[in-house]
Amino acid sequence: MWTRYDDRFTSARLWDPVSFEARWHYLALVEVCGSTGRYDGVLPVNLAARASDVPDPGRCHDELAAAGVLKVDTDTVTVVTIDEHIPPPGEREENLLPRKRRNTAAYRKRRCEAGEHSRHCPADTCPVKLSRRDMQRDVTPDDAGLPRGLPATPGRDGTGRAVTQDQEQVRSEEEQEHAHERANDDPWSATP
């Protein structure tokens, strides 16, 4: 959230009797109002006291009230001139986000209609996304409950290809036949 200050803000005569600590505290109060969405300028006293790091926020509140920029009540502190510092309603974040989302969605839809497809295309109107969704829907399970084309066993043969049950059977038989040869070829084995 942003805040704004007039170019003549620091040179205004109302700040002449106000200490630098109180001026700093006023700026902090304005920023707290803007960042927490308190566009009416009303802050609880305990939050107003913690707005800045001044050693005596109560004295600062009194100085600012005497200058006419702050109204101090028992439970609240009101920044009287808050409208000079906060964004107008049309430029506030909570009003901009819905409009920005609508504008972004319309822009992405126009790009998709022009043939510039990306991952941001609208899923319900993009022909590329619709064709992918239709292709995924065409995959039907076989009798075993697995999608067609997938292996019945979970293993792989190391090449990235799926291992069929016949290949798994042949591989296990070959491993049993040659197990004694591998044991004899190992120079580090403990058997003589």
Describe the model.
This protein has a three-stranded antiparallel beta sheet. The protein contains seven helices and three strands; from the N terminus they run αβααββαααα. The longest helix is centred in the middle third of the chain and has 21 residues, at 93-113. The chain has 192 residues and is mainly α. Among the domains are: 13-84, Arc Repressor Mutant, subunit A; 103-137, no CATH class.
Give a quick rundown of the structure.
By secondary structure, the chain is mostly helical. It has helices at 20-35, 45-49, 57-67, 93-113, 127-137, 165-177, 179-185, and strands at residues 42-44, 70-72, 76-79.
Keywords:
single chain, three-stranded antiparallel sheet, mainly alpha, Arc Repressor Mutant, subunit A, 3 strands, 192 residues
Judged by helices, strands and strand pairing, the structural class is mainly alpha
Count of strand segments: 3
Widest sheet: strand ordering: 1-3-2
Return the string of H and E elements.
HEHHEEHHHH
Average of the residue pLDDT scores: 80
β-sheet strand percentage? 5-15%
Q: What is the alpha-carbon Rg in Å?
A: 36 Å
- Give the uncertain stretches in residue-range form: none
Distance between the termini: 80 Å
Q: What level of helicity do the residues show?
A: 40-55%
- Determine and state the CATH class of the domain at 13-84: Mainly Alpha
Please tally the helical runs, counting DSSP H or I stretches of 4 or more residues: 7
